[in-house]
């Protein structure tokens, strides 16, 4: 018998994954070239050559006992030091190895930080639509995810609604920019508004409300759009990131948390995160990959590849009459469904045109679909006649 809590998680378990599995079955029937799978945020870009070179060099020339051994639960000191230096160079900060915890992807980092911060019943706010797994991650530690509205046009947080949703139980607010699933990037002015609100509310309740900045897409921004470094705007910010998207290493499960010395109770948060990493059973982030990202942290994401896809997809779909949010970052397009129930629209795209999209209600926002365009340019190009026929069938 499985636990009641797991029953809930299984029941709500990822529709995105289900879609991905469906895509594989459809590929067997129609041929892979005739299935247009936009369901999963799995980069279609290979990791930079420097990653391969680093792997080979490390396994060839570094001490194997060190490379494959246990280390501090937070990760190798020299790796954390290298990443801290890299961040300092970018953001003018003064982090050291003791401000970083290496994690098992961004997902591992979120679980570590929620285990560190949450008492049962504590609330974590998120802006709708949001990355589906947040609810489970907070729930893993008996935290409760509370949804705040976004502006229906910009998809920036609705500050008035956020104020209504904050209570004395609010322990953290997750900000995810560049955003999955909308592709929007919050400008500094918006983050400042959130910061002003949280400072006021933290004072009112006499306890810090932390921002947990979930930013695995930080480097993927287009047209020179700036992605603000949130700890420079709001003191009580903890950053979680990974190399899953930017260096195309999602299966390698490597990321990090930044716990700045300036945050409230920093030393305890850092010490607790170190223990959380261990007792969650991760023990430490994958050792070889830690050593690889220390060498490759300055490597650039292949933004040009995604940008080309973005331009083709956004340009074509808007031309066909669809209403889309113009993505400034990440590799997702957030599109309004031409009919009220977006599941029907997604079903039509799948059954009639072999186009796989994810219904927005999986992100807490019905009436929209998410299109993950981290696929090949050809997949997008070949899917366009299908999108066009569907648009025509709705009279767009
Ligand atoms: N946060 C967001 C917003 C994501 O989109 C994802 C993955 O898609 C994650 C976290 C988890 O990333 P990782 O694979 O690095 O654990």
Molecular structure report:
The structure is a single chain. The chain has helices at about 5-10, 15-30, 50-60, 65, 75-90, 105-115, 135-140, 160-165, 190-205, 265-280, 285-295, 305-320, 340-355, 375-395; strands spanning about 35, 100-105, 125, 145-150, 170-175, 210-215, 235-240, 255-260, 325, 330-335, 355, 360, 370. The chain is an alpha/beta fold. The protein folds into 2 domains: about 5-50 and about 300-395, Aspartate Aminotransferase, domain 1, CATH 3.90.1150; about 50-295, Aspartate Aminotransferase, domain 2 (3-Layer(aba) Sandwich), CATH 3.40.640. The strands form 3 sheets. Strands 2-8-7-6-5-3-4 form a 7-stranded mixed β-sheet, sandwiched between helices. A 4-stranded antiparallel β-sheet has the order 9-10-13-12. The model has no long low-confidence stretch (mean pLDDT about 95). The protein binds pyridoxal-5'-phosphate. Pyridoxal-5'-phosphate (PLP) binds near residues 41, 105, 107, 176 and 216. Pyridoxal-5'-phosphate binds near residues 244 and 255.
Calculate the terminal CA-CA distance, rounded to whole Å: 50 Å
Taken in chain order, the helices and strands follow as HHEHHHEHEHEHEHEEEHHHEEHEEEH
Low-confidence stretches: none
Number of extended strands: 13
Core attributes:
2 domains, binds pyridoxal-5'-phosphate, alpha/beta, four-stranded antiparallel β-sheet, 396 residues, Aspartate Aminotransferase, domain 1, seven-stranded mixed β-sheet, 43% helix, 14 helices, Aspartate Aminotransferase, domain 2, 13% strand
């Amino acid at each position: 018998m499985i636990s009641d809590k797991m029953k809930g998680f299984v029941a709500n378990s990822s529709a995105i994954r289900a879609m991905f599995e469906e895509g594989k079955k459809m590929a067997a029937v129609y041929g892979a070239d005739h299935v247009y799978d936009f369901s999963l945020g799995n980069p279609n870009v290979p990791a930079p050559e420097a990653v391969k070179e680093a792997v080979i060099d490390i396994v060839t020339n570094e001490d194997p006992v060190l490379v494959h051994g246990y280390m501090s639960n937070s990760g190798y000191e020299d790796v954390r030091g290298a990443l801290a230096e890299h961040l300092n160079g970018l953001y003018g900060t003064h982090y050291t190895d003791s401000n970083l915890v290496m994690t098992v992807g961004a997902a591992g980092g979120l679980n570590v930080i929620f285990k560190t911060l949450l008492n049962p019943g504590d609330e974590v706010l998120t802006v709708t639509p949001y990355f589906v797994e947040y609810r489970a991650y907070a729930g893993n530690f008996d935290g409760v995810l509370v949804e705040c509205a976004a502006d229906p046009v910009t998809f920036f947080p609705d500050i008035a609604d956020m104020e209504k949703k904050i209570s004395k139980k609010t322990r953290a607010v997750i900000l995810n920019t560049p955003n999955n699933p909308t592709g929007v990037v919050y400008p500094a002015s918006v983050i400042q508004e959130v910061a002003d609100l949280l400072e006021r509310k933290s004072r009112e309740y006499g306890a810090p409300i932390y921002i947990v900045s979930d930013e695995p897409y930080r480097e993927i921004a287009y047209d020179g759009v700036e992605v603000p470094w949130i700890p420079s705007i709001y003191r009580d910010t903890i950053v979680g990131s990974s190399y899953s998207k930017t260096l195309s290493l999602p299966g390698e499960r490597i990321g990090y948390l930044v716990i700045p010395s300036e945050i409230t109770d920093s030393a305890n948060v850092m010490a607790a995160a170190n223990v959380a990493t261990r007792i969650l059973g991760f023990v430490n982030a994958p050792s070889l990959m830690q050593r690889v990202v220390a060498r490759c942290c300055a490597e650039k994401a292949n933004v040009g590849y995604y940008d080309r896809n973005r331009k083709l997809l956004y340009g074509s779909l808007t031309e066909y009459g669809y209403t889309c949010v113009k993505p400034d970052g990440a590799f997702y397009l957030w599109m309004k469904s031409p009919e009220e129930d977006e599941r029907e629209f997604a079903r039509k795209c799948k059954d009639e045109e072999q186009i796989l999209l994810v219904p927005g209600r999986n992100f807490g926002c019905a009436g929209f679909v998410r299109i993950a365009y981290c696929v090949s340019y050809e997949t997008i190009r070949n899917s366009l006649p299908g999108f066009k026929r569907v648009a025509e069938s709705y009279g767009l």
